[in-house]
TrEMBL record:
GO biological process terms on file: carbohydrate metabolic process
Example of a GO MF term: hydrolase activity, hydrolyzing O-glycosyl compounds
Family named by the database record: Belongs to the glycosyl hydrolase 27 family.
Keyword Hydrolase: yes
The entry's keywords: Glycosidase, Hydrolase
Protein name: Alpha-galactosidase
UniProt entry tagged with the keyword Transferase: no
């Protein structure tokens, strides 16, 4: 008898035995998942802790001749269980398949649970199959309305809100475990002091916008939970329900479920799990962007003289002080209104940057039209198409989100992308900031490509085409952009726009507090332009804002460094003075050259105790050094506090020395704690040297 036949028979024998026993049990690395045939539901346990009780897969299905039905295992008469070995990008493991069937409509509901030999988490997905074409815009691998208590009741229990994109000055949020919450693509529910937590999120982003919906109570009980594909709301920038996916088989995104001793490591693992499905865009080999972006202060006053002066200032003054990345590179990026310059001036600017040893950058919005005339012809199409031909329509009207949204699948938009990138390359630009790309992911009434029915599919198609135009040697910087899909940018801005005041620093650090792990999805996290002088910022505010860049991994200054420009475009003289003063610090620049994002020490001690505030203390381990960054976001006065070595995960007996990098002062660790005093609207960074 052949090996395959033996394996097939063993699967059938196992399945039949399990069903006669009234249950199927999956065991793997602390997981115990049990399907109860009578209850037609699953119990998920991890190391004896009940994670989900009476959970089920669920989906809506449009069935020809019948209509729309909500299907669960209880909708079907029979269940067949099989298991098969897998060896994929997650490693070796087992796919456990539960096929629910036996209705007059010839539709089946299939739940797959993947366990792996070397992964601390499981993956799951749900699929609808049918002989005739079916469609759905809601598939949920895990739904439960049975209360469970993962942690003892505590004021420190938290549930994390992750925004779908970074538009509209949206924030990450960290709620107490009471009330209702919908987090997009991923969430974590965790206990503050112990750091134990559960992480749930989608790891596929080719078709769906996904979300996790939670209802909790009494700071300790999860009453309802739903992980689903088919999310649509104002948060996803949609005015329509999620598009329906059609075919003989319709599958949800694959979802990760993990229980971790440290929820922060769980979020890191989640980020890395996504890259097992699709790798990050890691084509850039010239280091993290360090340098200048024109938007913050010059904005629409951008001109050749101001840009050229910035290039010379960075080359002649800041570069000798060490202000460059670890490969000695500096980026000089022209933002919106670069078209104030002629093509000759743009070419001249590129030559100046190259002569100064710098990387020239430029800006564009591939999925937006910023004009107001739909009858105007689309650039690069030889007058074949007008903009009204390729607008994205919502409820029959052109959809505007800042600029007009355009259909990424339309040939006119692809021709426009080819036209624009050809120009960028001819001019010599190597770095492109891509803005308002969220407009390409909005759910539309329909698309030029009739095989596309969801905003995420359209976004993927348009951006895949753009990626081919850019090639591997261009840095693509995503600005206003969804967090997922991630594979199109070398960097992504972690927040919406931020300038230089302490409030802007706190806003940026909110995104790092709960989104530091996105550096697993992009080569670099981007804290937006670092502004020194726009609204009379203090020296402390400048220090804090630079620190946000240091601890995020990129520093692009945003000031006007041309003293010939009028006062309405900042304070060039003071900008130059502060830049020279604050960036003449080898310790700070050496830390920035690590090009890594810090993570929060606590994750539940937000500014002013609000659910939307930033954390104040962050950490990064690098060999024999542990760096601790502390912020005082308030203006009321000095912040005097301490952080324990235990919270920093180090043995105080291993501490050799502590140096504060902004002041250069040595600091002692006393009674196992690092004490810090920070003036109002300021920041400090401590380097702890360990044995």
């Amino acid at each position: 008898m052949k090996t395959g036949t033996i394996l097939f028979l063993s699967i059938l024998i196992l399945s039949a035995f399990s069903l006669r026993a009234g249950a199927v049990t999956i065991k793997n690395r602390g997981w115990r998942i049990t399907y109860d045939e009578q209850a037609k539901s699953f119990d998920y346990d991890y190391k004896g802790l009940r994670i989900f009780a009476n959970a089920r897969p669920e989906a809506t299905c449009d069935i020809p001749g019948i209509g729309t039905k909500t299907l669960t295992p209880a909708s079907f008469a029979t269940m067949q269980y099989t298991r098969n070995k897998v060896d994929d990008n997650f490693g070796k493991g087992t796919c456990h398949t539960f096929r629910f069937s036996g209705t007059s409509a010839s539709v089946a509901l299939v739940q797959k649970i993947y366990t792996y030999d070397k992964r601390p988490y499981i993956l799951t997905e749900v699929e609808l199959t049918g002989d005739a074409g079916i469609s759905s815009n809601y598939l949920a691998p895990v739904v439960t309305e049975t209360s469970v208590a993962w942690f003892p009741r505590s004021e420190q229990n938290r549930m994390l809100f992750v925004p779908w994109d970074n538009d509209g000055f949206i924030r990450y949020e960290c709620h107490k475990l009471t009330g209702e919450l919908t987090s997009y693509e991923v969430t974590s529910l965790y206990h503050g002091d112990s750091r134990k937590g559960v992480v749930l999120g989608s790891v596929e982003h080719d078709t769906w916008k996904s979300a996790v919906r939670v209802k909790s109570a009494d700071n300790g009980t999860v009453e309802q939970l739903c992980c689903y594909s088919g999310a649509s709301s104002d948060i996803t920038r949609d005015k329509l329900p999620h598009g329906k996916v059609k075919g003989n088989s319709v599958k949800s995104a694959k979802m990760m479920l993990g229980v971790f001793d440290d929820w922060r490591e769980g979020m890191n693992a989640y980020g890395e799990a996504n890259t097992c499905v699709l790798p990050i865009r890691s084509t850039w080999t010239q280091g993290a962007p360090v340098g200048w972006n024109s938007w913050a202060v010059l904005a629409n006053h951008l001109n050749y003289k101001a840009a050229a002066d910035a290039s010379d200032f960075f080359r002649n003054t800041l570069y000798p002080k060490g202000f460059h990345n670890r490969q000695g590179k500096v980026v000089l990026d022209l933002d919106s209104f670069w078209d104030n310059m002629s093509e000759d001036q743009l070419r001249q600017y590129v030559r100046k940057c190259e002569e100064n040893g710098q990387i020239p950058g430029i800006y564009w919005c591939p999925f937006s039209y910023w004009g107001d005339n739909g009858d105007s012809y689309v650039e690069g199409t030889q007058n074949k198409y007008k903009y009204k031909d390729c607008f994205l329509y919502v409820n029959g009207k052109p959809h505007k989100q800042g600029g007009y949204c355009v259909d990424p699948t339309h040939p006119a938009i692809k021709e426009r992308m080819a036209y624009q990138f050809k120009k960028f390359k001819e001019w010599g630009f190597k770095y492109v900031k891509l803005d308002f790309v969220t407009n390409g992911a909005v759910q539309g009434d329909s698309y030029y490509d009739k095989n596309v029915t969801t905003g995420t599919q359209a976004y993927n198609q348009g951006f895949s085409y753009l990626l081919g135009l850019a090639g591997d040697d261009m840095f693509l910087s995503l600005s206003i952009a969804p967090l997922f899909p991630y594979q199109y940018g070398n960097s992504r801005r972690i927040s919406c726009d931020a300038w230089g005041t302490i409030g802007h620093s706190e806003y940026v650090m909110n995104a790092l507090s709960y989104g530091w792990w996105t550096d697993k999805l992009f080569q670099y996290n981007d804290p937006d332009h670092i502004v020194l002088q726009k609204d009379g910022e203090t020296e402390g505010e400048n220090r804090a804002r630079i620190t946000t860049g240091v601890v995020t991994g990129m520093i692009l200054l945003g000031d006007n460094f041309s003293t010939d420009e009028p006062s309405k475009t900042g304070n060039p003289k003071l900008s130059i003075e502060r830049a020279v003063q604050l960036l003449d610090n080898k310790d700070i620049l050496a830390l920035a050259s690590l090009e890594r994002s810090f993570m929060p020490v606590y994750g539940y001690k937000s500014f002013r105790g609000t659910h939307y505030g930033a954390e104040s203390v962050f950490m990064l381990r690098d060999g024999h050094h542990l760096y601790v960054a502390c912020f005082n976001y308030g203006a009321e006065g000095d912040l005097s506090d301490s952080v324990s070595m235990e919270a920093l995960d180090i043995d105080p007996r291993k501490v050799v020395s502590v140096k504060e990098l902004w002041t250069g002062r040595s600091v002692a660790v006393e009674n196992g704690e690092l004490h810090y005093d920070i003036p109002g609207k300021d920041a400090r960074i401590y380097r702890i040297t360990l044995e």
